[in-house]
């Protein structure tokens, strides 16, 4: 169904206003692993993820993939080029079959100017991205691989709506995606998750990872900091 009712950014608009925007979008379905945007290209549209999910990635000189984020159903991407008119800063690849609705930069900027609350939501999201990237840069400079994996889990975790004091990650990214975010190997991520599970700090059920003791994971990171030889394995 080609509607934008599940897009979080547009939740304060009326159904009629969302329908009007939907009618101005270009709709397209992408298959898993299909490239949607390429870094440095001149396209300027922004995209709403109606169903499915996409990965925001870049590639090093050696060809190594670095995943910045996964954008899921109800979210959006491509706003940087739509706002500043410059070339794409990253590649976007479908991580599953997805339906996207693209909006021209002119219409997106008009949407922002006409709706201050939507503009503020976009600004807050950009600020959040900057803060996350600042943290990751610091982690790369000061933490070992095991610590970086643990920190990334803490960053992704959200409060469990059903259990007070519990945290969860849903949907849990693949081990390869987590590895590329923190510049380590999939094997290291698997080993860390196995260790945390063995210690009772996390529990994997389906597509959800439950952080049963968030404080214990934070303490584990601090403990590794006092044993550098272990934190850098």
TrEMBL record:
Pfam families associated with the record? cNMP_binding, HTH_Crp_2
GO MF terms held by the record: DNA binding; DNA-binding transcription factor activity
Q: Which UniProt keywords apply?
A: DNA-binding, Transcription, Transcription regulation
Q: Which domain of life is it from?
A: Bacteria
Q: How is this protein annotated for GO cellular component?
A: cytosol
Per the database record, which ranges form the HTH crp-type domain?
143-215
InterPro entries, A to Z: cNMP-bd_dom, cNMP-bd_dom_sf, Env_Response_Regulators, HTH_CRP, RmlC-like_jellyroll, WH-like_DNA-bd_sf, WH_DNA-bd_sf
Ranges for domain Cyclic nucleotide-binding come to 9-129
Q: What is this protein called?
A: Cyclic nucleotide-binding domain-containing protein
Q: Which organism is it from?
A: Sneathiella litorea
């Amino acid at each position: 169904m080609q509607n934008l009712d599940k897009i979080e950014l547009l939740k304060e608009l009326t159904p009629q206003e969302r329908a009007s925007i939907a009618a101005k979008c270009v709709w397209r379905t992408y298959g898993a692993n299909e490239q949607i945007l390429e870094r440095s290209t001149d396209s300027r549209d922004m995209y709403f993820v109606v169903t499915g999910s996409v990965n925001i990635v870049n590639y090093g000189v050696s060809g190594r993939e670095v995943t910045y984020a996964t954008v899921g159903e109800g979210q959006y991407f491509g706003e940087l080029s739509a706002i500043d008119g410059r070339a794409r800063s990253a590649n976007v690849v479908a991580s599953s079959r997805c339906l996207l609705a693209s909006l021209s930069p002119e219409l997106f900027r008009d949407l922002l100017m006409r709706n201050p609350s939507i503009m503020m939501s976009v600004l807050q999201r950009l600020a959040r991205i900057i803060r996350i990237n600042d943290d990751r840069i610091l982690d790369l400079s000061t933490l070992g691989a095991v610590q970086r994996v643990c920190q990334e889990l803490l960053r992704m975790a959200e409060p469990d709506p059903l259990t007070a004091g519990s945290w969860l990650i849903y949907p849990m990214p693949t081990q390869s995606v987590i590895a590329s975010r923190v510049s380590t190997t999939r094997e290291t991520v698997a080993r860390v998750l196995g260790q945390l599970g063995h210690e009772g700090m996390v529990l994997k059920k389906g597509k959800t990872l439950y952080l049963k003791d968030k404080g214990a994971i934070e303490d584990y990171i601090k403990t590794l900091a006092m044993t550098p030889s272990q934190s850098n394995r």
